[in-house]
Amino acid sequence: MTEMSFLEHLQELRKRLIVSFIALFIGMAVAWPLTHTVERFIQRPLREPSFTQKINYQISSWVTRTFPALSKNLGLKPEPPKVSPHKLNYMAPLEPFFVQMKISLITGLALAFPVILYQLWLFLAPALYEHERKYVYFFVPFGTLAFLLGDVFFIYLVWPLIISFSMAYESEVLYSMLNLSQYVNFCLRLLLLFGLIFELPLIFLILSRTGLVTADFLKSQRRLAILLSAVVAAFHADLVTMLVVAIPMYLMYEIAILLVRLVGERRPAPAAAAVPANPSGPDLPHNH
Fold first, then answer.
1. How far is it, in rounded angstroms, from Cα 233 to Cα 253?
2. What's the pLDDT at 219?
3. Taking the C-alpha atoms of 63, 69, 74 and 77 in order, what is their torsion angle to the nearest 10 degrees?
4. Which residues of the chain have pLDDT under 70?
């Protein structure tokens, strides 16, 4: 553990922020040519059936083939999922450009995330003991992997579910005209949120290895975790989005408890060999 003054802490923070911003800028530059590909990818639910719709059709078809009498009684008539193609609209002259900037920012953040995590670790390292600093080799790669897994989980499972639920309200008298900025902002905000949510087990694991939390403490705070999950989810207006945010967030908390219980409990350092004390003082040579 290194002792630092308040001014040294500020200088260290400035240094880490500068490196992080440079990494983010480079990530944005690399991501800029990819923004149209990313934009088309997050618009897939407007053109293709969702993963859950495909699974539902496959299960219904299997039940119909395997149990024809039961499916007839239940009135099951599986039909391939269909999605009416939709286009996003924009109303401001430079709106697509600013949306492209936002996409490059979030994509650049994902590309620069390992560097940003490493800078965060370097800022926290002076407050850690020497044997605790080795966790950087665990923190950076697994932190990056957890962030990407959260994004993949959201973009393949949660996002199509939200859009298909929204499209279900269309009828002969109700037609959706989704705005480009609102659609992309909503997606990018949740994309960033799910990446951070999937960081929770790793964060609690690191805290437990440094002795700051225990599995028993986390278990005793389950009600608080449920409350905080509901509070974070409450920032989204519709019930479906609230559920798909709150449930994974609390599940990550439970996974954190399991990980801390299995591999995260801090083990006491081996005691140094004690040197027996001589109450009578140093040994003196004896004359025979």
1. 15
2. 92
3. 60
4. 1-4, 51-52, 127-128, 132, 237, 264-288
Q: What pLDDT, on a 0 to 100 scale, did the predictor assign at position 33?
A: 93
CB atoms within 10 A of CB 217: 14
- The residues with which 179 forms a beta bridge, in sequence order, are 89
Query: What's residue 128's pLDDT?
Result: 67
Distance, CA of 78 to CA of 60 (rounded, Å): 6
Pairwise CA distance, residues 102 & 180, whole Å: 12
- Residues in a beta bridge with 89: 179
| pTM exceeds 0.85 | no
Q: DSSP readout, 37-60?
A: HHHHHHTGGGTS--HHHHHHHHHH
Angstrom distance (rounded) from CA 134 to CA 210: 11
Environment class of residue 162 by beta-carbon count within 10 Å: exposed (0-12), middle (13-18) or buried (19+)? buried
CB 213 within 8 A of CB 207: yes
Please name the amino acid found at residue 56.
Answer: N
DSSP assignment of 100-125: HHHHHHHHHHHHHHHHHHHHHHHHHG
Is residue 112 within 8 Å of residue 26, measured between CB atoms? yes
Task: For Cα atoms 250, 256, 260, give the angle at the middle one, nearest 5 degrees.
Answer: 155
pLDDT score at 274:
42
Residue pair 140/118 in contact (Cβ under 8 Å)? The answer is yes
Predicted local confidence at residue 96, as pLDDT? 92
Position 1 scores a pLDDT of 57
